[in-house]
Amino acid sequence: VSNPNNFTWQAIAVAPDDETLALAPYDEPVYVSTNLGSTWTAITGSADWTGVAPTGNGNFVAVASGTGIFTNSGTTWVETETGGSWTSVSLAAGGTELVAANGSGGVYVSMNAGGTWSEVSGGAYSCIACSAAGNRMIAGVNGGPLYISTNSGTSFTEVTGVPTSAAWSGVASSSDGSKLEAVVDGGYIYTTANWGTTWTTNMTTADWTGVASSSSGSAMAAVINNYDVAGSYGIYTSQAGSLSSSTPGTAGYISGAQASAVELQCIGNGIFMPVSFYGTIWGN
Fold first, then answer.
1. What 3-state class would DSSP assign to 230?
2. How many H-runs (helices) and E-runs (strands) does the chain carry?
3. What gap in Å lies between CA 20 and CA 43, rounded to an integer?
4. Would you call 194 exposed, middle or buried from its count of C-beta atoms within 10 A (0-12, 13-18, 19+)?
5. How many other CB atoms are found less than 10 A from the CB of residue 78?
6. Range with the largest mean pLDDT of 69-78, 94-103, 166-175, 243-252
7. Is 261 exposed, middle or buried (0-12, 13-18, 19+ CB in 10 A)?
8. What Rg, from alpha-carbon coordinates, does the chain have?
9. Going by C-beta distance under 8 Å and a sequence separation of 6 or more, which residues neighbour residue 135?
């Protein structure tokens, strides 16, 4: 995946086709790729974009902190919800059902591709994502816990096995909701493959600001926005099995399927972070 610009990326999203990607930056245009990040196109209109969701057929919904919720059919942004500290937006299947989080309080659902919104529950969440059916959701609180909902956002239950007080900045879900990812700004990437029952800590500490998942949950992408921490304002990708850390020191090593390749970047103290990969890579 190429990095279109060294912007402060705040969110990344993958469309249900697993081909279209969207990047939401701070005070810059939203960037879109229809070829898995090989090339990117900017959508005119800058804002403090905090979340974006590709809804199919070249249409997008994005949220901007302090401004509102917007839809775009490929030309201009149209505001459908005014004001609010919107932090995140996620798409369910079909391109019409979406869920959005308001940092000032409230989980909102749209059943008409972002045209109108209805509040379904309270809670000041910093990030939110839903399954394809929209019945399972994962949400995080900045400086608080991680939560899961199994009733379309009507109520949320605190997740165990992850930090109970962290700067949760991005979450993602597979289409069935069984595989979940969550990132911490200034922390780690956390993943689960069993509906949130147990979690794995991945990668290294960095200013992770967003994460996205493929429909199957076997591939994911995350964005980082602090050059001093990870050495790059970049986009990082991974496949199932490639997020586990290797054993520290000379005893640790990485393995991969035949013809797989990985590019590593030294981030200090003898620690290397994957920058790009092809195939399947994992740590030992």
1. helix
2. 1, 24
3. 14
4. exposed
5. 12
6. 166-175
7. exposed
8. 18
9. 150, 151, 152, 177
Report the 10 Å Cβ neighbour count for 23: 29
Instruction: Show the 3-state SS of 68-90.
Output: EEEEECCCCEEEEEECCEEEEEE
What the block records as the tokens of 233 is: 């304002």
The answer to whether residue 193 scores a pLDDT higher than 60 is yes
* pLDDT at residue 282 in the model: 65
161: three-class secondary structure by DSSP: coil
Residue listed under structure tokens 């898995």: 36
Q: What is the pLDDT of residues 14-73, one digit of tens each?
A: 998 888 999 999 999 999 999 888 889 999 999 999 999 998 888 999 999 989 999 998
Locus of tokens 């780690």: 188
pLDDT digits (tens, 9 = 90+) for 81-112: 998 999 999 999 777 999 999 999 999 999 99
Residue with tokens 């990485």: 254
Residue 261 predicted with pLDDT over 90: no
Q: Which residues contact 81 (CB under 8 A, 6 or more apart)?
A: 68, 69, 108, 117
- φ and ψ at residue 137, rounded to 5 degrees: -135, 155
